[in-house]
Amino acid sequence: MVLVCFMSGWFFEKVFERVVEGRVVGCGRLCNDFVEVPFVVAEGVNFLYIEFEYDGAGCRLMLGLMDSTDSLRGWCSRCTDKRIRVFISRSSATPGHVPGDIVAGVWRAIVRLDSVSKDGCNYRLRVVGYNTALGDMEFDYLGDVLSKLAKVVNLQEFGLRYPEIFAVSEFAHSCSGNWFEERRTLHSHGGSGWYRGDLHVHTVHSDGRNTLCELLSLAVSRGLDFIVLTDHNTISQNTELVKMRGFCRGLLAIPGMEVTTFYGHVNALGIDRYIDFRRKSREDFEKLVDDIHSAGGVASINHPTIFREPFCRDCPFRYRDLRRFDAVEVWNGPWHLFNNESLSWWHTIVAEGYRVTAVGGSDYHGSNLARLGEPTTWVYAESLNPEGILRGIRMGRVFITHRPEGPIIEVKAIDNSGRVHTIGDEIAESVAKWIELEVSIEMAKKYTFRILTERNVHKIVDIDSNEFKHRERIDVRDAKLIRIEIGKYRNPHELIPQNSDDILALTNPIYITTESLTL
Question: What pTM was computed for the model?
Fold first, then answer.
């Protein structure tokens, strides 16, 4: 134990240091996706330093941390080097990790086996625990830390004795002192209406380039009303969001998490607690949906078909017969990345009689591949709050456009008794043999408007104005659903658009029911 005392109450005590070495051999991922490496954290620690190294040609390992209470304390999606260094303190943590009390007891390093060579992978875990005044500091970036340390210690001597403190160089860069201007939304009163947002975004808390502060500022500039924070396998972005309440007015930021596995990715929208991401079997994914629902969230299957080699080996959703989720991301990033295949799978599901909402998400990481809000998911909500947005998604009150600007779509279906229905509603066939369909579309001139049922293309119309309106009577006795799509098509008579088609917008269906649909 080494104790260094500083002026004005500053202190720095190394409480313990542990090293665990091991080797991953044999069948690797054929048997396990993860291995656990336990280590003991002593009493009296408020600052934890973790260093994980591995070697071996063809080896790629990822690192997560669980504390002695079985709470997730971090997942390092950004850590692509063979030497991973992170810290967790009472007040701060490396992005992707959750600050808080360092609870004594048995912690576990959760090592994901992304790639294991036939010769195996050697690893070394080093954990150092401190009791220090640094444990109660807000670490915004290394410059601030150095500024505070330089006033109380000789930095050169301190760095030689405790080099691990300077090895930690990634910080969350909080929004302290930055206030965003309040702006008007489409419904600035916050009442009922259509709100535009992005359901799939990443920050430095996983593998994104933007800090949370930068992302929120960008969302405001893009004209979005809401975003959902969906960093991979961590909730640290949600923890930081709680600290930032009031820093961003006029934008709703909803907590979430992208459960990222080798068998597909699932967005847990609206959850503010950890959801275990270690899922493998079909039964695991059934339980995952139950866990998301128990946490009050919406379960959405991300990019179920579009990504594959060389884009993303493990992104496609494996269990295509599963039907218990709430939504499918039919449009991920640029349309032409095979989103037509995801749309086709979703269309098959709803044609079977299941109510599953089609949503979009940019999957924004801060790169040039996808821009924030492209596509944009529009949700009809009674008010602009998490509960309102999540309820709108569950109800299917959603349409998707290629950009936040639009086009703007309004759909009304008036049954023969005069009742008015809209996107996501059910119309009972027993009381409606026909409907008057009214569609208004803004900002889609020179594109093609299509009315689709579960089986065919009902109507094709060229849009000749940026304030386009269409009305017609439709016999619904032979239809299960009616939905709208706007684009430029090589063959507009094909039910599912081709990958080369330019899609501008699509809506969720109005459902025609003989009995209650399966939820």
Answer: 0.92
